[in-house]
Amino acid sequence: MRHAMPSATPSRRRRRLVAGLGAAGAAGAVTALVAILVPSASASTLFSDDFENGAGNWSKSGGAWSVVSDGSKVYQQAKADSELARVFAGEVTWTDYSVEAKIKGLDLSKGLAGVAARASGSSTMYRLALTSAGKAELQSVKGSAITVLGSAAVSDPAAWHTVRVDVSGSSVSGFVDGAKVASGTGSLTGTGRIGLVTSFASAEFDDVAVNPLSAGTTSPTATKSATASPTPTKTASPAPTKTASPTPTKSAGATPTATATPAPTSASTAWPKATGEKAVTATIPVSGTLDGGNVRYFGSGALGSDSQDESQDPIFKLADGAVLKNVILGAPAADGIHCSGSCTLINVWWENVGEDAATFKGGTSAAYTVDGGGAKGADDKVFQHNGGGTLTIKNFQVEDFGKLYRSCGNCSTQHKRAVIVQNVVATAPAGSLVGINSNFGDTAKISGVTVIGKKSLDICVKFTGNSSGKEPTKIGTGPDGVNCIYNESDITFK
């Protein structure tokens, strides 16, 4: 039981009342329960969840999450060796709001546990985290770039604490148990969902609440007492509704009317304007050639999650030898495109990358080509190479991303893989350009790359890959003429 907490949720208080009453007090219990169960939450409450009815409002990415009992029902992340475990809820369109949750660290010896606001992807967010150093840190997170906006010491981070983040305009503030611990100015996207996060830690979460703020204001400090209003009944936020251009008259599995395909000649080509929209509720199989005519395809129903869950299905699944061209993938994009064998992607555009833009799964002789197009908003990888063969990425533009290409570092079946990168413009990278496994003989040939917004970048990172599922070990960067094949003159920084 959490006796240290200032108050209890309705379900928790209800149990205590019933347990402490005999038959003689039944009439009084009825009166007390009626008073407790009458909701008095503000009508402006955006979201609340005490996990008494499960965790159906949340989408998971990483870690081992489950609802367990700890005095009442709580949401637990039990995998302390998970590098980044997170769950998300709410709306991507939320702007100025206050989010709070109760957090108890189970194992904070090596990492952190916190609550996130304005999460626009799995690793882009503001978060207030209880850390192994005995602090509460207010952080701006964008991929591997973490900026600490402020911090303060916290006594016993492993005890239950109420952690809150307020976001209003560009102002971000963090509170622990009602006291402000940090504030600062952020530059991340001004909208996004809420999240619960751990990194190399295990923790429990409870009593999540979200309330709106007006731009430039801060919510009043939340202080609970034994007579305070109960936690509002949780309501799942509805999925965002798409209301753009009419859906073209095409069946999901049919080849749309062909249009002339412009020959991709430059990575600086302007992004195309969508000619229509198509909601996709089940993966579209492609064999032969599919010319999308610059229609925007986006996930709906079973494919409607915009989380980074690695178990998601793709929007398109290409058979061996298939060609996909002139397609725009809108948000949510689920797991993008899967290539079962050799495939060609021509002028394919990802407006906001889901888990990955495309995953290549062919055999050792497979040849994949990405020619033209572009991708934005990849919190981690843009292109994931799980199979064998050679991937060529040319005349491509990528913006706001973690890494452009990754040869799978811990797939259960490993291959020698090759990637060729030619004429690519990379804007605002958060991590690196290419990651390969030198111990498996991977090669990366790179030329004509322009990096915008950074004065330096790890162009080619070498890892020692494995087939055990463990995180691969980084062993070096830079050209070596063997695995990372390029010259410094092949890279331009602007």
TrEMBL record:
Q: Which family does it belong to?
A: Belongs to the polysaccharide lyase 3 family.
Keyword Protease applies = no
Q: Which cofactor does it need?
A: Ca(2+)
Write out the entry's keywords from A to Z: Calcium, Lyase, Secreted, Signal
Claim: Calcium is one of the keywords in the record: yes
Indicate what this protein is called per its UniProt record: pectate lyase
Q: What superkingdom does the record give?
A: Bacteria
- GO cellular component annotations of the record: extracellular region
Where it mainly occurs, coarsely classed, is secreted
Q: Give the matching Pfam families.
A: Pectate_lyase
Q: GO BP, one example? A: pectin catabolic process
Q: Name one GO molecular function term.
A: pectate lyase activity
Q: Where is the composition biased (Low complexity)?
A: 217-274
Q: Which organism is it from?
A: Actinoplanes philippinensis
* Location in the cell: Secreted
Q: What is its EC number?
A: 4.2.2.2
Q: Region labeled Disordered — which residues?
A: 214-275
Q: Check the record and name the InterPro entries matching this protein.
A: Pectate_lyase_PlyH/PlyE-like, Pectin_lyas_fold, Pectin_lyase_fold/virulence, TAT_signal
Reaction catalysed by this enzyme: Eliminative cleavage of (1->4)-alpha-D-galacturonan to give oligosaccharides with 4-deoxy-alpha-D-galact-4-enuronosyl groups at their non-reducing ends
